[in-house]
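Reviewers of the previous submission asked for a worked example of the structure-prediction workflow described in the proposal, so we include one complete record here. The input consisted solely of the amino acid sequence. No template or homolog information was supplied to the procedure at any stage.
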Amino acid sequence: MKIAQICPRYSPDIGGVETHVKEISERLVNAGHKVEVITTDPTGRLNKQETINGVKVVRFTSFAPGNAYYLAPQILFYLRNRKYDVIHMHSYHALPALFAALGKGQEKLVFTPHYHRSGHTPFRSLLHKPYRFLGKIIFSRADYVICVSEYEKKLVESDFKVGGKIVKIPNGINLKEFKKIKNQEKNSTGSNSTGRNSPGKNSAQNNLRKEKILLYVGRLEEYKGVQYIIQSLPELQEFRLKVIGKGPFESELHDIAKNLQVENKIEWLKELSREELLDCYADADIFLMLSTHEAYGITVAEALASGTPCIVAEGSALEEFVDGIHCFGLDEPNNKKSIIKLIHQAENLKNNSEFIVEKLNIFDWNQITEEIENVYRK
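From that input alone, the workflow returned the following structure tokens.
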């Protein structure tokens, strides 16, 4: 099949949608399909066209104020001049999917909305109301709608009345990577360390780590809630925080840390290799994701697969990971006392039990891609 994947951004940009599209696209190529990713680049710095691991990538300049919207009507005209068997649109919360729906010819359309209903800021939430009339066009023209969680599925059914088109296929992770981590943990010594060298560790920490590590991985946006973790640090004397990622809220987070005088308790990391990121997952004592706008939560799934207990904000698809044993839910992510209480509740769980991936229905990308391919074949 000749397949077009439409998304706001693509590798080397990072994020949940970017990871989803990259993982399935490369596997579809390996299965013998021709895959073209049609995306945008608001910076104008990336290659207009290139091939990455067998996937053809075409980027259009877009207008993206505040890293949002990704206005690129060129996508509509590009698609009208080409033929595909399937066009797979991604992300309700950006405009490329709308342009793809408007550019539909005889192709079959699949839509993965990664939908969480509201915007990431009050202004964006306000814009969601008039945009819903346009959003209905995408859903009406899609032949199938793929939701990545039960939470997202219920929202889509409620807001767009397309229950007959919906199939639930979650995001995945690369399970082989995490089996390697567990094997290395078994061969390591010490009760509170994986024995692997993580970015930012000095020799003294490698020999005997007195402070425990809190970890956040993701884009640095206000709605992600990293500021609430930082605000808890003054009362968490035995903990340090690793923040892995970049984004528009980064300078504000640094200011918060400076005002609270906890700069020396935070390690800011970005553009890590995959191996370095896996080291950080494995080395952390607790992973935190306090976002209330998530359709799935790949980084949470990866942390859990590393055997690292998690604390997540409830009110989005993240709550589907909560089992009260390996993953804990937080009703009010901005409540410092609740955060501190859960951190102390979870801090000694890392080495106390073997995490079973199957319990929380975390799947491998190979299986996920096969299920998506079956939707294409229908």
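The chain has two domains: 2-170+364-377, 174-360. We consider this example representative of the routine output the project will generate in years two and three.
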